[in-house]
From TrEMBL:
This is PD-(D/E)XK endonuclease-like domain-containing protein. Pfam families: PDDEXK_1 (PF12705). It comes from the Bacteria. Residues 32-99 form the PD-(D/E)XK endonuclease-like domain. The lineage of its organism: Bacteria, Pseudomonadati, Pseudomonadota, Alphaproteobacteria, Rhodospirillales.
Length: 129
């Protein structure tokens, strides 16, 4: 319906206009990047919403629409942490020597939540849960 379409447009524009989000949508960033491979002997097939690659680092961002969004890392659904840890593990193989950072972009707000490396380590492929 029209109200739902208007809400989607407003949310999208809010994300694009958010100060500090420019690198996510600027030159050198890519949208909807497929990632497929074996990581720690496990098959991985997914799609990264936004990928920013620089000479020194890689930033992986996935959009999430939870309402309300989690207020802390501790309240992020485990499935999201496992997903992002798998993406990080795969991209470390593709971009050796570069720091790979991961973040969730909560569309309500909008708010970018960077995921701490120790949290991703605990959820990485091959890590004991």
């Amino acid at each position: 319906d029209e109200a739902e379409q208007a809400e989607i447009v407003a949310t999208t524009l809010a994300v694009l206009d958010q100060p500090g989000f420019e690198p996510l949508f600027g030159p050198g960033s890519r949208a909807e990047v497929p990632v497929v491979g074996l990581v720690e002997g496990r098959a991985l097939s997914g799609q990264i919403d936004r990928l920013v690659v620089t000479p020194d680092s890689v930033l992986v961002v996935d959009y999430k629409t939870n309402r309300p969004p989690p207020v802390s890392i501790e309240s992020v659904p485990r499935a999201y942490l496992v997903q992002m840890a798998a993406y990080r593990a795969a991209l470390r193989l593709v971009y050796p020597g570069r720091t790979v950072r991961c973040a969730l972009l909560w569309t309500e707000g909008p708010r970018l939540m960077e995921l701490p490396p120790p949290t991703l380590d605990r959820h990485a492929p091959g890590a004991s849960a």
